[in-house]
Amino acid sequence: MKIDVIGDVHGCIEELHELFDRLGYKQENTIYIHPEGRIPVFLGDITDRGPASLQVIKLVYEMVIVHHKAKYVPGNHCNKLYRYFLGNNVHVRHGLETTVAEYKRLDKQEQERIKKKFMTLIEASPLYLQLPEAGAVVAHAGIRESYIGRTDNKVETFVLYGDITGKFDEDGRPIRGDWAQNYMGNQWIVYGHTPVIEPRFINKTVNIDTGCVFGNALSAFRLPEEKIAAVPSKQPFVDEKFSYFR
């Protein structure tokens, strides 16, 4: 199995198109197909903050649900949008406001269509992906080795939000533990969630959220080649978003 795990897109549709081109995919009607049968895997946070979250939803839905040519796991932003669509009382901030603004500009029929597509995508997707044929586990914010195979609330929180400690730094941002330092497994753990300037390799883990929506790059990790492919972001650069693990 040959896969291309794609980092946090966050509504950056132009960069996603460019990344597919860089990876050798060909556009066929509404989706991208690789001539060698490679499978793209979206590791969550396809929406929020960026300019075109709804276009990304449509593309991922077509590739994953309609044509079965890609895989997807949710991120914390995906989970929050899902809860918003359920009618739960969520705070429309931290990026969700950009997706909601796009959504509210649609007419009622189109709102229902995009809502149904996104909810179907979420409900049909696993919390994280175990891909033994590729020697990898794909989880939005990572996963401890001892959690692999579990889907309880503790694991769900970790997979969506990372190794949270409950503490905050002086700027109010959550302080996270560095779980990857203790990973000793033989499978690759491919994750994102925390923006880094360059893909971060620790043991057999790699963080590929290179902060496209914050002006850096959109990256993919290719297996079995163990290679990174990336395209530069078209968004303004926001330096303070890359403070972790420097």
UniProtKB/TrEMBL annotation:
Residues 1-195 form the Calcineurin-like phosphoesterase domain. It comes from the Bacteria. Pfam families: Metallophos. NCBIfam families: PRK13625.1. This is Diadenosine tetraphosphatase ApaH/serine/threonine PP2A family protein phosphatase.
